[in-house]
Every structure is written in C-alpha cells, then in structure tokens.
Design goal:
Helix content is 47%, strand content 12%. It has 399 residues and is an alpha/beta fold.
Length: 399
C-alpha cells in the first residue's frame, strides 16, 4: 500500500491501535493476519454503530487477511456490563443461538463470508474443567480487574459485582489463545478486555495480539452510544425510508462523524466538507442528505436511496401524504369501542410498544388526517379512509 491508503486504513474510523508501529510492520510483511472479533448474542440486530469495526474488517479482508468471528455463546450466558453500571442479565442457550443466527445473517451483509472463519466458544470452553478455570484465574489479580472503569465505579459506589463478571474478561482473553489471534477488534469500551487478551497471550508464550480500538458512534440523540435499548439506533436491515428518516433526524454536529466512520466518502471530499462546516459556508441539510443517501445505498441500493429521499422531501419537508400508504383494517362494533388509540398504533405497526405509543401521543406526534390527536380520542371515532400518522415517517390508511 502507498502511504495514503495505509493512513486511511489505520487512521480513518480508528480510535487507537496498540501497538500501531508494530502493527504497521506486521502489515508490511504481507503475511495473512488473523483478525479476531467477538460478539455476545445478547441482542439479534446490528446497527450502524456496529458497522464501524465491521467495515474496517472488510477493508483488511480485501487485502487478503482472515476474519475470525467468535460467537460468545458462553460469555453471553455470563453477562458483561460493557461500561454500564449494572450487571447484564444472563441468557439461555436457546436465546443465544436464536440471536446468533440473526446476527450472523446481518454480519455478512458487511463482512465477506468466504474470508471469515466462524467459531463458537463452546468449542474450547465445553471441555474446560474446574482445574482449567482455576489455572486461568491464577494469572491475574482482583486489583487488576478493579482497575477497569465500570468495575471501579461500582466498587466505589458499593454496588454488587458478581464473581462471574470478573471471569468475563478472562474468558474473552482465552478466546485469543484458542483462535491464535494476531489482532483483536472492539470498541473503546472493550479496551481493558482486549488488553487482558494481549497480556494472557504473552504469559502463555504466544505473540501478543495487537488491539484495534474503534470509536463508539453516538446514537441519533447525539449523546449516548448507539443502542437499541436506548431507542437511538439506525438498524442496518431497517426499511430504506426509516434509515433515511432517522439519519435526517441526527443533530447537525454528528453528521461529519458518521460520514467519516461509516461511509466511503473520499478523504479529500471529507476534508472539504469539514472546512465548509467550520467556515459555515456549507449547507447542513444537503450534507445530511448526502449522509442519508450513502447509508441507504450501502445497506440497500442507489435506487432505494433515491426513492427514500423523494419520500422524505414529500412527507417531511413538504408535509404531503405519501401515495403508497399501507392499509390497516379496523375492528368494528363493540370490539372497536373497547380499543385504545395506543393499541391501534401498536397493532398497525406505528409503534413498537404501548409505552412508545403513549409517548408519541403525549408528544403530539400522532395525527389523524394531519390533525393532532390526544389520548382522549376514542378509537370508535376513527373513520374508514382516514390517514393515521405517527411521527414523521409512519402512516397507515384506516379501512
């Protein structure tokens, strides 16, 4: 690689590489590297935040390197707080496997399946004995693990830390031994765990892996890390209109970060966008539309991006009702009289839960024929042919 391509690989969309100079030397040898990334199937869906490391893996695959995908079917059943202040609930084996199947189908929308080796932790932890566990725990001290930020905060606040949680970094570290990892990828919140893997490899006579730490992409609120549980995510399998609309709802301050981390906009063009933003000579709306087109094209195609943009301009910017509204069949008679408006929103797919439906109603985001309605509106007053709208992008025609 020339210097420009190398810098794009190791700098763009990268928070830190440990140790960068040694990684570059290893890269220059031309030897195919084993690139480890693990996931705990605690949730089945991949969002745009997950795409940051996955896109980097794909770049390295295109250079001839091998991705080793580890399905954390053991660690997911233990639970890791991952920077949160509470223990994450354990999952059953059935939940883990169902989530893993969905996750991998989405994972390979970005990463090349043919250049990926998929491994399950149970391959090596299944035969583990108590003696193996004790031998593993003997290599580190409790003090070392309490240095991890989330453990430290909870310890100082007298919040419980389960012994199983202390095992989590050890098991993730042993994964690096099991698959002979050269480089491990993860978000900056995984730095401690990845460094434990590097240390363990050195203790056991292996060449220590390099750590490729990726930035944590803020969600659509522009504040907290993208997360489905916080409802601030853009899912990579969501409909094109939703990806486009959610992107357009981003704070202006987040657009450049998204363009840098999850698109292939050329570096020169990205630099020009940054200069225009800093000098306030650019058009924030057009920049955001560019990002929205890039994301929809990446996860759908260019035609879908064009259609989604037209839909956004018609329904949001000009506040017109879209032409292709799905129909939703209302109940009749006594059954309709017993229905609440929030129930209809959920049943029509305009809200994911009763809680979300009530929130939308309270915010004045629910409209019938473009007139705002409140929680006191009786479902029995809804008429056939009326357009029910929730938020900016979701519509149904009542029949």
């Amino acid at each position: 690689m020339d210097e420009k391509d190398r810098n794009r690989l190791i700098k763009r969309g990268v928070a830190e590489i440990i140790v960068e100079s040694e990684f570059v030397e290893l890269l220059d040898t031309g030897k195919p590297l084993r690139l480890k990334i693990g996931f705990d199937p605690s949730a089945p869906d991949i969002h745009v935040g997950h795409a940051v490391p996955l896109r980097k893996l794909r770049q390295l695959q295109d250079l001839g390197h091998k991705v080793v995908l580890i399905v954390g079917d053991w660690t997911a059943q233990i639970g890791d707080p991952s920077g949160k202040s509470q223990t994450r609930p354990m999952l059953t084996q059935a939940e883990v496997m169902a989530n893993a199947e969905t996750y991998m189908a989405q994972f390979f929308k970005i990463v090349d399946r043919e250049k990926t080796e998929t491994r399950f932790q149970s391959d090596w932890f299944g035969p583990f004995t108590l003696a193996d566990v004790i031998k593993l725990t003997s290599r580190f001290t409790v003090a070392q693990f309490l240095a991890r930020e989330d453990f430290s905060k909870r310890y100082k606040a007298n919040q419980p830390i389960a012994i199983t949680e202390l095992l989590y970094p050890l098991l993730q570290a042993y994964d690096s031994i099991a698959v002979k990892s050269d480089v491990e990828f993860g978000g900056t919140d995984q730095k401690f765990n990845i460094l434990v893997g590097r240390d363990l490899q050195g203790m056991m006579g292996h060449r220590p892996q390099h750590c490729f730490l990726m930035p944590l992409l803020p969600g659509t609120d522009g504040v907290q890390k993208m997360s489905k549980s916080l409802n601030n995510y853009i899912g990579i399998t969501e409909p094109a209109n939703d990806i486009y609309g959610k992107t357009m709802a981003l704070p202006d301050s987040m657009v450049l970060a998204y363009l840098e981390n999850v698109t292939d906009v050329p570096d020169d063009e990205l630099d020009e966008m940054k200069r225009a933003t800093e000098s306030q000579t650019g058009d924030p709306m057009e920049l955001k539309k560019r990002l929205a087109r890039e994301l929809v094209t990446q996860f759908h195609d260019a035609d879908a991006a064009k259609t989604a943009e037209q839909h956004f301009e018609r329904t949001v910017q000009r506040r017109e009702t879209p032409e292709d509204i799905p129909a939703f069949e209302l109940s009749t008679g006594a059954e309709l009289n017993s229905k609440r408006l929030s129930d209809i929103l959920v049943n029509a797919g305009l809200a994911s839960s009763s809680a979300e439906a009530k929130r939308l109603i309270d915010q004045g985001a629910v409209r019938v024929n473009d007139e705002p309605v409140n929680a006191n509106v009786a479902a029995s007053t809804l008429e056939s042919g009326a357009v029910l709208r929730a938020g900016r992008r979701r519509f149904v025609r009542l029949v």
